[in-house]
Amino acid sequence: MNVADTDSQPSALDVVTAVVASNSDIAAVRFVQYPPAQTFKEIQERKALTADDELRRRLRHVDKTIREYVFSRREIADGLIGSVLSSLPADNALAVTSRVTLADGRMSHIPMIDFQCRNNSENLAYLRSAMLRLDTAGGFLLVSGNSFHFYGLTLLAHEDWVGFVGRSLLLEPLVDVRYLGHCLLDGFASLRISRHSSSRRDAPVVVKEILT
Prior knowledge:
CATH topology: DNA primase, PRIM domain
CATH class: Alpha Beta
CATH architecture: Alpha-Beta Complex
Structural class: alpha+beta
Strand content: 15-25%
Largest sheet: 5 strands, antiparallel
Radius of gyration: 17 Å
């Protein structure tokens, strides 16, 4: 049975706002606007690929960013991201990136994971246990359509974030390993916080708060 995702549940934007509020040294957060596309797995399921085409698609790593936004902690608290969300084209989405700017100018990361396991109560319980074992010091699990997203509350220095991504890969096949590979190549993670109108993907909502 799918985990319910109703309008009464906190949104991904609410989670970002909560993470910023709980980390007083965050000065600014970066968001990116991009056109969601079919994943390699979705393409593979829909048509047969030649060996050359499969390798080309497997190894492709491109920046799909159309526009970048940087919001200060005050702008986030004041809800200014809402104007961006309300004006997104139907074929675009908005994602928050893990890499944040601190008050002293250093960079840090919000722990983020994109999962690919089925959206059901059994997997939700399992992922909660997994996140506790990853020592994430609390966070949120969100429904993101057919699966889940995770946001941690405690920031990570870059070297610690690399270790976090590496340990997360050990949760395969629950995690989207290609997503984590792209994160390592980019040097940061990102997760969609908006709905995507043209593909009818709703905005992710919280289904479990993880307390330590």
